[in-house]
Amino acid sequence: MIRADFALRHAGQLATMVPAAGDPLGRIRDGALAAREGRVVWIGEDRELESQVTLDGDLLDTQGACVIPGLVDAHTHPVFAGSRADEFAERASGVPYAVQQSEERGIARTVRATREADEPTLLALAQARANRFLANGTTTIEAKTGYGLDLDNEAKLLDVLRKLAGRTPLRVVPTFLGAHVPPPGIDRDLYVRSLIDEMLPAFRPWADFCDAWCEAPAFTAKETRAILTRARSLGYGLRVHAAQLAPGEGPDIAAALEARSADHLEFATPAQIRALAKAGTVAVLCPGANFTTHGPRPPIDAMRQATLPMAIASDLNPGTSNSESLPHAMSLACVQWGMTPVEVLLGATVHAARSLKLDGVAGCLQVGSFADCAILDVETPEAIPYYVGVNRVIATVAGGVTWQPS
Amino acid sequence: MIRADFALRHAGQLATMVPAAGDPLGRIRDGALAAREGRVVWIGEDRELESQVTLDGDLLDTQGACVIPGLVDAHTHPVFAGSRADEFAERASGVPYAVQQSEERGIARTVRATREADEPTLLALAQARANRFLANGTTTIEAKTGYGLDLDNEAKLLDVLRKLAGRTPLRVVPTFLGAHVPPPGIDRDLYVRSLIDEMLPAFRPWADFCDAWCEAPAFTAKETRAILTRARSLGYGLRVHAAQLAPGEGPDIAAALEARSADHLEFATPAQIRALAKAGTVAVLCPGANFTTHGPRPPIDAMRQATLPMAIASDLNPGTSNSESLPHAMSLACVQWGMTPVEVLLGATVHAARSLKLDGVAGCLQVGSFADCAILDVETPEAIPYYVGVNRVIATVAGGVTWQPS
């Protein structure tokens, strides 16, 4: 008998995301799952649970609901203060996002508010966001800094992320995004030098990934290459904000440096997409930001042709996507971009996990994986995006524990 | 002293929706409100509450959150069984909505599933939907039948609505929509005769409004005129599904018969819009359906010029808008159509209430109005649509009682 301290039973459909004959979602009907110390120890049909598992702990009867792996959000900016609601309204009235970037507004405005906020305030804000991620079925997030933009303030944000991870069952994968935009009031060459010589070495213990935005409002190709090359030599995994607003070299740099992810990619070329696929990079698509900035459809068809894995992310941030809901991002990707429900389901689980080097442990359910699940009031996993803008998550399990809002 | 059995205090901003000097939302900063027997008896600044009101009942401290009138959803189809998730996915892949309407699919498919479902099943489904409306800040819905489409089954749906109203604090305004589409398997002239001669007279005690869909997949202008003229003579208020998929006479009929609402209106002409404004009709816009069917932008600018009141509705239905969230519909209207936050706030409160003949009692907060409120974790009421696809409602008050999920 297998010993377990948590079990879940009577999942009408349990999507393992481990492809099985004819089913890319590897679903088990009337499924069950058992876990010990946060990891799955058994998974199968409910009628076999009792004969194979000895349970000493909580039993969750999902009463026919759908169970999927806890969602994995591969692109979020969860540590910030201040509001940019007026900029959202302005964009609705036709002002382009790029025009909103100045030393007073746009990202710079969030940087100012975030610098002014003390650590307890930022931690409380981030924790409220963690609760909303969990409430919407997400159990793992990639979490970027990038609103500090100097040594002390970026350190403060990394500290908030470290403390957040200790206070929430949400898994928090920290990414250093000092190269978000050049901060106001400092020579950009000086800032790039500080990134390369001071921040990157100092922050290596606190961040798994380094990210940079390679685009006109942010960093040049040359700067991006210098920053990410240094990050790579220090052992960071790499991510790149690339080709969101215009064509550019971001995707080439991501491919050349074998970045784990290239994000946004609205303006990536077919050749760049092929290069990303060859490099083992994951395309992290951000439908929420695309939606509120009226961006063009990313080259989904070229990505399909190149078999470039497409992750779907919330891109939670105060400028372009103020939402912790991956199911909503999935709906947007289906409606706006014509992605299929299966594509967006894989995008918010396995492909997202791959971009975070969590292949096989997050975004799927199998023996040895995290016991992270979202339990949803939906008829099939494919129906998740059909419920648009309304939360159908009944419960979230993280590490074999049913989450309750803190 | 004013006696009250409920009070709410410390609303950071309390939007009354009663226009005040320079503020269309009539907001009170650090506001408070007191109610007795479900109606507002006092509203003002928090610092005046204690000196003016004697409270014998619940006190809700909103701790600086925003308080707005409970949202009013002027167009919903909440009584149905079955799923059309596959049709949602199909549309994402490019199949037009109109092509999906047949005797086997589209609305006809929901009619079949709804006829097959017994009343307790339909009531349980509707009650789950009522809970989701309330969870997302809505306290009043217009609720259509229209998936029965014969005497017995439409009676069953009206009965479900009547029972639902007794089991939820959500206010349910029933609309008879026998003229949704001509049902399969019966001669359409016979069906129209049955509507006019049997159903309309029989159902008058159970429905406040009568609605008809005047459009190619549904009823002709002549049929619509006959049905609604009869309904009017019986004392129903009128609503019309009009010009959603193509230009047509629907808006003209709505104006000529002084309908309370003309709904969808993507293809209404400027002349029709002026006629609707003159007739005192409210335009009930449905951004959720527009979104998933890839409809064109409704003629918002012409509506503004004509000062035609624009309500925003969820259009909850299993085909085109599977969502009980008005905040989400408001986000869509801002992002997709360029409506302003103030326009969508008024659209989901005062204008929606006007279309339901609830002017002054629902969708606003003043002495004598329903004590229905949504309490939101947002910085200002205008920020509500800025949070896209994620529920920021902290609590919902209906009739002076804080709602708890049933």
In CATH, the topology of the largest domain in chain A is named TIM Barrel
**Count of runs of 4 or more consecutive helical residues of chain A:** 14
Biggest interface in this structure? A-B, 45 and 46 residues
Low-confidence stretches of chain A: none
Any overview of this molecule?
Two copies of one chain form a homodimer. Chain A has 406 residues and is of the alpha/beta class. Chain A folds into two domains: 2-69 and 364-402, Urease, subunit C, domain 1; 71-355, Metal-dependent hydrolases (TIM Barrel, Alpha-Beta Barrel). Chain A has helices at 46-52, 85-92, 107-116, 119-135, 151-167, 188-203, 221-233, 250-256, 270-279, 287-292, 300-305, 326-337, 341-347, 350-355, and strands spanning 2-15, 27-36, 39-45, 53-61, 66-69, 71-76, 138-144, 171-179, 209-214, 237-242, 261-264, 282-285, 310-312, 373-376, 393-398, 401-402. In chain A, the strands form two sheets. In chain A, strands 1, 2, 3, 4, 5, 14, 15 and 16 form an eight-stranded mixed sheet that branches. In chain A, strand 15 and strand 16 (401-402) form a beta hairpin. In chain A, helix 4 (119-135) crosses helix 5, helix 6 (188-203) packs parallel to helix 7 (221-233) and helix 8 (250-256) packs parallel to helix 9. The first copy, chain A, starts with a strand and ends with a strand. The relative contact order of chain A is 0.16. Chains A and B meet through helix 2, helix 10 and helix 12 of A and helix 2, helix 10 and helix 12 of B.
